[in-house]
Amino acid sequence: MEVKEILKHVDHTLLTQTATWEEIKQICDDAIAYGTASVCIPPSYVKQAAEYAQGKMAVCTVIGFPNGYMTTATKEFETRDAIANGAEEIDMVINIGWLKDKKYDLIEEEIRTLKAACGDKILKVIIETCLLTEEEKVEMCKIVTKAGADYIKTSTGFSTSGATFADIELFAKNIGPEVKMKAAGGISSMDDAKKFVSLGADRLGTSRIIKIVKNEASSGY
């Protein structure tokens, strides 16, 4: 699999608490230069990034991040605000406590609400796989499918671990045909990235792949 093909699947990501505009601008420049699927950045930088990019790349942001326990009304407001500021993709975090309490209807309703707020924009649903049982992961595959979200996503990158190959394989067996998969967190090598894509992941949430490409280019490979 060619590196250019892998880069088309990458949401070039910077979500650290200390992220500055200069750093955000740099990943925007990288995304444009290398042809990534999007940049995934904090909501406070969405308007500035969208104006800076002028349509040369998609801006993605996070909602209810990273813990997911905000009210649905708060998440809906965040979503509408982000889209008004120029976001084309939304990565929301589910209420994990509701999942543990088996409040499946509330989770489905929340996802539907945010998808409605997104309109024709993309909605990805972060379920934080490292905190879930296999039964809970399967249940979330069903809920995400029924709620009409565009993607199911493994991780925030802010919990105990990130994406695993086993989780993507599990998703593939349990999501509906219209739902795509995003692997995020812990993608530390090009081999990892290639394997996730080969298993069916349509998106990869990572900042490391472009760093690897740049390092290889500077080394003459």
Characterization of the model:
With 221 residues, the protein is α/β, with parallel strands linked by helices. It has one domain (3-219): Alpha-Beta Barrel (TIM Barrel), CATH 3.20.20. 48% of the residues lie in helices and 16% in strands. It has ten helices and eight strands. The chain has helices at residues 3-7, 21-34, 46-53, 72-84, 96-100, 104-118, 134-147, 165-174, 190-198, 208-219, and strands at residues 10-13, 38-41, 58-63, 89-93, 122-126, 151-153, 180-184, 203-206. The chain has an eight-stranded parallel barrel with strand order 1-2-3-4-5-6-7-8, surrounded by eight helices. Helix 2 (21-34) links the parallel strand 1 (10-13) and strand 2 (38-41). Helix 6 packs across helix 7 (134-147). The radius of gyration is 16 Å and the shape is globular. The relative contact order is 0.14.
* End-to-end separation: 16 Å
The structural class is: alpha/beta
CATH superfamily: Aldolase class I
At the fold tier of CATH, the topology name is: TIM Barrel
Unreliable runs: none
**Count of helix runs:** 10
Can you name the CATH architecture? Alpha-Beta Barrel
What is the count of β-strands? 8
Mean pLDDT: 97
Please indicate the percent range of residues in DSSP E strands (runs of 2 or more).
15-25%
CATH class: Alpha Beta
Topology, element by element:
Blueprint: H1 3-7, E1 10-13, H2 21-34, E2 38-41, H3 46-53, E3 58-63, H4 72-84, E4 89-93, H5 96-100, H6 104-118, E5 122-126, H7 134-147, E6 151-153, H8 165-174, E7 180-184, H9 190-198, E8 203-206, H10 208-219
Parallel strand pairs: 1-2, 1-8, 2-3, 3-4, 4-5, 5-6, 6-7, 7-8
